[in-house]
Task: structure prediction
Amino acid sequence: MRVQLVSGTHAIACALFGVLRPGDELLAVAGSPYDTLEPTIGLRDRAQGSLADFNIAYRQIPLTDEGGLNWEALGVGVTKKTRLALIQRSCGYSWRQSLSVAEIAEVVRLVKQQNPETVCFVDNCYGEFIETAEPTAVGVDLMAGSLIKNPGGTLVTAGGYLAGRADLVELACCRLTAPGIGRSGGATFGQNRLLFQGLFLAPQMVAEAVKGSHLIAYVFEQLGYAVNPPPLVPRRDVIQAIRLGSSEKLIAFCRAIQRNSPVDSYLDPVPGPMPGYESQLVMAGGTFIDGSTSEFSADGPLREPYVVFCQGGTHWTHVSLALEAAMEAVGPHEDCSKRGKC
Result:
């Protein structure tokens, strides 16, 4: 755990650059990676020192039409060149199921069956403490995430983490600092208390966020909107998606959440560019820690089908209050209103 890791993307990039070498192949097993990883891989914004600039090949196994893992393709998709299999646990900005720990275990089994030397790496962002086991308990070699998400317990002000096989963690740390220094370097600037206290509180904060996600899903499904995941279905991360269908509703939703936030409630979110993202984003982030998604927040890219992604929530009562304003701001789905069922 280091405060020098500026984000989950930074922690993941350290892992990828630490393990991969020129001529290796990176295989994404759960479809397209999260938007902010595209420049790291070299899928856009080339010539900035991406993996592609270092002659590291990239391939991905598309999801099925239903949004699940393509087990048949994964069973034959690993080659001798596949040095690292990237497993993105959370749905990110896509309309798909997030992965369970049991599914991750099966991915590891299939990958290792084809090439035992392939490193199984999990982007663990948003998934920590959702289940009773983490990916490293089911054979994953290395995982990474952000401390202003689940494991920071809403207290940690910055940072990320890397966990797994000691040799692989050290390789990633050598990218964070320098070869020969690795994890031996990195001042914590007096943040150790927050790191430990946040980790101690994290399971409780995640539990509150999960309760809030069920409430959001239930209410907006009743209003006629498609939600992912559905209400009362066991959670696999702390993200709740709602397909709003228009940019106007997406902006209105985020503004309602912002108005009912504990910090900066007087501000109106406006769409704008964000480093690492291809589309403009609109984001409600009235949080005590800037960018914290363990606290209640909502955001989404301004692109079809205009999905808002809600994350976190320190207590479901705050979520319910903000939800009342969001419901009033967007109203029921048009089709639902026409049928008179909302």
